[in-house]
Specification:
- This protein is an alpha+beta fold and about 270 residues long.
- It has six helices and 14 strands.
- It is about 20% helix and about 35% strand.
- The strands form four sheets. The chain has a four-stranded antiparallel β-sheet, covered by helices on one side. A four-stranded mixed β-sheet has the order 7-10-9-8, with helices on one face. A four-stranded mixed β-sheet has the order 11-14-13-12, with helices on one face.
Length: about 270
Amino acid sequence: MKFMMMRKADADTENGVMPSEAILQAMADYNERMTQAGVFVGGQGLRPTREGCRIRFRNGEPTVIRGPFEQTEELLAGYSVLEVDSLEDAIAWAKQWPVEDAEGNSTLELRRYFELEDFEPGQAIEKHRALGQLPKEMNIHLTFPGNCREAMEFYAEVTAGTLEAVITYGETPAAADVPADMQDRIVHASLNLKGRRLMGADMNGECYQQPQGAQVHLEYEETEQAERVFNALSEGGTEIMPFAQTFWAHRFGMIRDRFGVQWMISSQLEQCQ
């Protein structure tokens, strides 16, 4: 089940006081722990209400009301979306909110999302259900001829992801049946990228086939960050398409890295003029 964890506004947030480096670091560490636990869906901070508005409808007619708004304690300064098993789990994560925020005097509110099962069956609900029939996760699995560890450590460094698992064949219950030259090879590696995973494993002999016809796509908001990743993956590899502006993206490029894996790197489409 999903919960929205809302950070209520206060005088500082409504006055546009920016968070300190210590607060930003504490929040990054907090979000990283939740990401690694697989409960963090996403979240954002919100600018003061003086930069926003409300749209009020009366008899179907909209009226735009410009901020700022009063009753600060009822306003929203930011939110996180958590996917957990129960309200108790959501509370447990909320209680770990960084004490650096507002010197330990912040207020959070948890609200559970509605789920389709909460509504009476009907044609409209079935349409919503059809729109949402996607896998909970889609991950990518790569195979390597014996250099999986090197490749996954390199990808972790380039992407700033978390290498959460690197398991050898010799560490599995089937170790006794594994050839000696495969004991220290990797049977499972997992790189966590904001809850999505790039996984890998070493394959023995003829079982390995160099990847063809598929690419790993990474999209970034910031062009500079996308270019940095493109250049890092290009080292020792082959540039397939230069990192440049296209009609579908502000910047886009393709590489085959030194491990034979093909990548597509882009910055956001919305920036394209």
